[in-house]
dTDP-glucose 4,6-dehydratase (Azospirillum lipoferum), 352 residues
Amino acid sequence: MTRILVTGGAGFIGSAVVRQLLAETDAFVVNVDKLTYAANLSSLPGAEGNPRYAFEKVDICDAAELRRVFDTHQPDAVMHLAAESHVDRSIDGPGEFIQTNVVGTFRLLEAARGYWSALPAERRQAFRFHHISTDEVFGTLGDDGFFTETTAYSPNSPYSASKASSDHLVRAWHETYGLPVVLTNCSNNYGPYHFPEKLIPLMILKGLAGEKLPVYGKGDNIRDWLYVEDHARALRLVLEKGRIGESYNIGGHNERTNLEVVRAICAHLDEMNPAGAPHDRLISFVTDRPGHDKRYAIDAGKIERELGWTPQETFESGLRKTVAWYLENRDWWQAILNGSYQGERLGLTEEG
Ligand code: NAD
C-alpha cells in the first residue's frame, strides 16, 4: 500500500485530492494541515474513521513536528498543497504568505530530504515530492499566447511571488540534492467545497442572498478555469507517471472574462433559484485590484501528450455542478458564514 503525505488536505484542492485518494485508490493518506481560516475538515466527509486516513494538525513551518510526522508515517510520497492562497489577502498582509509558502516549503523540503536520504535504496528511488503550484507565477499575458512549461517566471502579486519562490526552492532541491521532485502549475480552480472568498463561490452565495455582485474594473480580466476534480486527477497522474525533475502545466482551455463567469453563474441561479431572478441585475463594478493580471491561459499540451490527461468537465458542465452543489450543501457554507465554524465570521462583503 502506498502511503501519501498530503499537506493542506483540509483546503479546497487538497480536500479534493484526499477524497479521491480515499475513494479511488488503496493509498494510506496522511493529511498535514495547520487548519487556518481556509481549512475545513467537514470537506472530508467519511475520512475520519477511515483506517486508511490519518490527520496531523501541524504547521509546515515547524521543522521538529515535520520530522516527527515523517518518522511516524513513513510516506512514499509527498503532495504539497499547503499554502496561503488568496491574492487579496496577500496584498493586505504579505507576511503570512512568505512564512507559509516560502519558509514552510523550505522546512518541508528539508524534512523530506532528511527522511528520503535515510531510506533504503529501493524506497529512495521510488519516493516523490510533488509540489503543487499556480500559473500565476508566470505573470500576465497579452491578448494572445499561452503559458508553457518554459515561460519565464514573472510574478506580480505577493501571492504569486511567494509561490514562484517555492517553485524555485523545489527545483533547486532536485538539482542540488537529487530529491526526486515533480512540479505542476495549474490555472484557476473551481468546484464544491471552495471557500466563499473566491470569485465563483462568492458570486453564487451573494446571488442567493440577493446582494450586489462586485466585479473588479470592467470585468474583462481573463482566467482559465478548471474543475477541481479534474485538477486532482491530473495531480494523481503526475505523481504516478510524471518524469522526475519536470514541471507540468495543467489547465482546461476554459478562458473566460470575469464578467462572463459572473453572467454564467447568474444564468444558472435564474434557473435553480427562480425566486431571485434575474440575478444579473445585482452585478456592480468596483475599483480594480492593484497589480491585477490581465490574462492567464495555460497550454496543457505536455501533460496531455506525455501522460494522456484531459479534463472530464467543460466549463459549462462544471459550473452547473458547482452552483447545484452550493444550493444542495447549505450546511457546509452556512457554518462558515454564521461563524459557527472556527469562530471566524465571514461577512459576504469581500471581493473575490
Ligand atoms: P486553500 O487556501 O483552500 O487551502 C490551503 C490549505 O493549506 C488550508 O487547509 C490551510 O489550513 C493549509 N495551510 C496553510 N498554511 C499552512 C501551514 N503553515 N501549515 C500547514 N497547513 C497550512 O488553497 P487551495 O485553493 O486548495 O490551493 C492549494 C494549493 O494549490 C496551493 O498551493 C495553491 O497555491 C495551489 N493552487 C491553487 C489554485 C486555485 O485556483 N485555488 C490554482 C493553482 C494552484
About this structure: The pocket of nicotinamide-adenine-dinucleotide is lined by residues 7-8, 10-14, 33-36, 38-39, 59-61, 81-85, 100, 104, 132-134, 163, 186, 188-189, 195 (CB under 6 Å). The chain has a mean pLDDT of 94.
